[in-house]
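S2.1 Query sequence (DUF4412 domain-containing protein)
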Amino acid sequence: MRTSLVLAALLALAPMPALADVTAHYAAGGKELVVEVDEGGNSRVEVAGKFAVIHRDAVDYLVIYDKEGPKVFELQGMVDMLKGIIPKTPDAEAKDLEFGLAPGVPGVPVAVGGQRGAAWKLLMVKGDDASKKKHLEMVVSADPALAPVGTVFQRTIGTLSEFFGSMFPAETGFSAKVTELFAKGAPLRITPVEEGAAKPEGPLIEFKSLDTAEIDAKHFELPAPVTPTEEIFGSMDSLMKPGGGAIKDLP
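Output structure tokens follow.
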């Protein structure tokens, strides 16, 4: 007993290793998507020259690169503005829709980019026959080294779930199942699948590599002042003009 107490005391006094910065690289629609997370919890998800989501000071910011320079919006504010104008599934149709999760390849680990993960399917379990033939397959990793990356995806999906909820009411289970799926671990690959399709679709994103090199703190600085929420629509109009910005090109 005394030996155990001494060991416990020594472990308590020993310096704990610092959390490392991590950078994950993904392929996304022919482009590279990079996820950076520092030891303090700041993060940046970016497709260079297209968009970035920067998390700092407990707030998520969306950066869209315009030909005149980057524009910065609070992600939550943008979601709040947009969810009020997107088409909503009528209640009569919503009651006939239900989403669920199922193991993608039961009991068989899947390797992606040198990482082992488990496959899961997000599918429509109640609805029209055409939609029930489609599902989203996601391979997730529970590797602790990728945990910070998984947290970034989970937090971003948590914010966007409000947007999804405007399209699919809570009773369909869509937002709840998407949140549950991303809580299973860091995504290694996300692929849309349609049963019987002549040509399978490629992955939306696919993990390629991870490194722990120190990240420059400037990567988490906002590249421009934040556009006030009430000015979002005006800024979006300019970005949607031909050559105006990158919204139409987002993967």
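Helices lie at 2-13, 75-82, 91-94, 129-132, 147-167, 174-182, 232-240. The chain has one domain: 17-249.
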